[in-house]
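Protocol step 4 of 6: structure prediction from sequence.
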Amino acid sequence: MEDCSYGDLSTHIERKITRRIWFTEAEILLLLVQVTAALDFSHSRKIAHCDLKPQNIFVKSDGSVKVGDFGKKKKTSEYDSPEMLTGKWDLQTDIWSLGCILFELCTL
């Protein structure tokens, strides 16, 4: 198991909100590239995450991130696409969730 001792992305978002510090464009871009690469890898194997949210993006000590928790979704979240709510989802539902996360990173 890899060291993700820096917590999940939701923890980092909360820290930024508490300190009233914005994510820099470089931080957002680095995160976006890494999560997009992870989704590209899983989507190329026809695997949808279906529960992509900051709590499932884990930050490593070197600043890189890992997407985790590909387990069964337990409840509806604010990151769900409209298709998830109707039960007719596909791989693009993860892109919707990524867009929600990107919006949150930019606006806190």
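Step 5 (inspection) to follow. Strands lie at 57-59, 65-67.
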